[in-house]
Amino acid sequence: MKDKKSFKTVFKLFSIFLYVAIFTVGGGIAMVPVLERVLVERKKYLNEKEFTEIFSIAQILPGSLMINMATFIGYKITGFWGSFFSCLAIMIPPLAIITLISIFYAKFIQFTLINKLMLGILAGVVGEVAGITLNMFKKTKFDFFKIALLAFSFALIFIFKMNPIYVVLIGAVLGVFLGRTEE
Amino acid sequence: MMLVKLFLEFCKIGVVAFGGGNAIFPILHHELVEKLQWISTQDFLNFVSIAETTPGPIGMNLSTFIGFKLAGFPGALVATIGYVFLPFLFMLVVATVAVKIKDSKIYKRFLIAIMVVVLVLLTRAAYLMVAGGFHDFRPYLLSLVVFIAFMKFKKLNPIYLLIISGLIGMFYF
């Protein structure tokens, strides 16, 4: 951390990832719409393209999506300490909440009100993921290659139920050999 | 000694956690229940159902849970750090490299293709959440309302939308 400003940014990142982690229900994907709004549209730490790039790469590498995204985003914005504190932040809520639940383990399972709360948040997450998907669709400049690739991966995932990792690999190879860069 | 073992075991699990939480359940079951016999199948299934409905990444929740069960809070801490450790290092390397090669032609083509595939992966993620948790029309309706609000109010922090939908779920589901 070289100066006061980057120290402030690291702290800001830490607090953003902390509250985002609390609302990550149903897997790491839930944090994507929230992060996009906060980091791109409000704080302007990243532009739309950088965010999509980070999300795409985090999605295709081993490890949980949240950790991957936090590491990459933190690194891109403030280097090593950014990624370190972003990762630290997303570990705190699960540690705290799960430890509490472990202590009251048996009682928690029968607590339907919490299940309803979580289902409500999950429904919200689905709506937001749908929103961000539509936004990404709108921003993509479709040419013949991209339309073909989209249809092809759709078929592989939903009809042939192929493991997403292989679909990503196939897409990457096709892109490197057949794709075009936009200038 | 137990703590070291826990750390190493969860380091391993963290790396094979491809494609997010659900994908790692079979691996965890194989390692922890069948091979090491650290916990029973019944406990494992209970942990999974709780990990799915509590905040935080599912795999991380599960690591915390199992670590706590085996060695109390230090166990929870060590298992969670182990789960995060290698992906963190790996991603750090990838981020460093990606920042350096971002203008290369091959990398750009790679990215363009990956971004198209990710559109499909996002659709799949939404589909899986709906298929796994929505039992009647109310969650669908709520999703639709949140979707419209999310598109319409671009300045609104999406967290507030999630808090509101959680409360609606609590009282109307």
Describe the model.
The complex is a heterodimer of chains A (183) and B (173). Chain A is an all-alpha fold and 183 residues long. Chain A has helices spanning 4-22, 31-42, 48-60, 65-78, 80-103, 105-109, 112-139, 144-159, 164-178. In chain A, helix 4 (65-78) runs antiparallel to helix 5 (80-103) and helix 8 packs antiparallel against helix 9 (164-178). The mean pLDDT of chain A is 86. By secondary structure, chain B is mainly α. Chain B has 2 domains: 2-100, no CATH class; 105-172, no CATH class. Classes of the chains: A mainly alpha (183), B mainly alpha (173). At the A-B interface, helix 1, helix 2, helix 3, helix 4 and helix 5 of A face helix 1, helix 3, helix 4, helix 5 and helix 6 of B.
Keywords, please?
heterodimer, A: 183 residues, mainly alpha, 9 helices, 0% strand, B: 173 residues
Quick structural summary:
The complex is a heterodimer of chains A (183) and B (173). By secondary structure, chain A is mainly α. Chain A has helices at residues 4-22, 31-42, 48-60, 65-78, 80-103, 105-109, 112-139, 144-159, 164-178.
Average pLDDT metric of chain B = 86
What's the Cα radius of gyration of chain A?
19 Å
How many beta-strand segments of chain B? 0
**Percent range for helical residues of chain B?**
over 70%
- The number of distinct β-strands of chain A equals 0
Question: What pattern of helices and strands is seen along the backbone of chain B?
Answer: HHHHHHH
The arrangement of helices and strands of chain A along the chain is: HHHHHHHHH
Please mark out the parts of chain A with pLDDT under 50 across 5 or more consecutive residues, or reply none.
none
Shape of chain B: globular
Instruction: Provide the structure class of chain A.
Output: mainly alpha
The oligomerization state is heterodimer
Tally of separate helices of chain B: 7
Q: List segments of chain B where confidence is low: pLDDT < 50 over at least 5 consecutive residues.
A: none
